[in-house]
Amino acid sequence: MSPEAAFGGTFHINETWSQLDAAYLAAAAGTIPDPLPCEIYCHSLTDPTILSPELQAAGAQTLTVFGLHVPDRLITPENNDQRRAELQAAVLKSLNSVLAEPIEELLLTGPDGQPCIEAKTTLDIERAVGMPRGNIFHGGLDWPFVEDNAPLNTPAQRWGVATDDPQILLCGSGARRGGAVSAIGGHNAAMAVLESGAPSQG
After folding, report:
1. Three-state SS for 40?
2. Phi, then psi, of 6 in degrees rounded to 5
C-alpha cells in the first residue's frame, strides 16, 4: 500500500474494542491510557500548500495526532506542563507500537536539535482558541434523541439546534445529533429555518 493510500484519510491506532475499554478504565482511574488510542491525519498529503516550497521539495510531511480518552479533569494549571510531556511520550509510544521503525528517527529537528513537535493539552486548546475544556464538540454532548418531556414547541427545538436566543441557532459540533465533520448541525439549522418560514439573514 502506498503512503498516500495509508495516510490519506484518518488512520486509527490502538482502537480495538478491548483497547478502548481498557483506555476508558485507565482514564476513569485518573491515569493516561497505555497504549493511548489515537487518530492520525496527514494533512500535507491532501494539501501540500500547508508546507513551504522548500519543505515540500525535501519530502517533508505533517502529522496531526488526536489522543483519545484523555479527559480534561486529568489536566490542571499546576500539572499542565508535566501532563503535556507525558501525553507527548504516550503518543510517540502509541505510534511506535504500529510502525515498522521508531517515529523519532523520522522527525525533523529545529535549530536547537529538538524534534519539531507541538503538543497541546485540553487546557492549552482552551487558552488558545476558547473551546471550553478543550472540547472539540464545544461542550459536553447530549444523547441524539430528546427526552419524552423535552419542549418541542419550535422548529429549532425539534431539530436540536435551539439556543437561549430564538434568533440564534446552533450549527456546529455541539448541536444535538450534529458533531465533528458531519455537517448535520448546519443541515438541521437550515431545516429549522425553512420550517419556521423565517427570512434568512444574508
Report:
1. strand
2. -70, -40
How many CB atoms lie under 10 A from the CB of residue 150?
Answer: 12
Q: What is the pLDDT of residues 43-94, one digit of tens each?
A: 898 889 999 999 999 999 999 999 999 989 999 999 999 999 999 999 999 9
pTM: 0.77
Cβ proximity of 176 and 144 under 8 Å? yes
Rg (CA), the chain: 21
Cell numbers for 171: 450549527
For cell 434568533, the residue is 167
The distance of Cα 177 from the centroid of its chain, to the nearest Å, equals 17
The residue with cell 497505555 is 34
Residue pair 24/5 in contact (Cβ under 8 Å)? The answer is no
The span from the CA of 130 to the CA of 176, in Å, is 21
Q: Where are the domains of the chain?
A: 3-134, 140-202
Give residue-wise pLDDT tens across range 146-192: 888 888 999 999 999 999 999 999 888 888 877 667 788 899 999 99
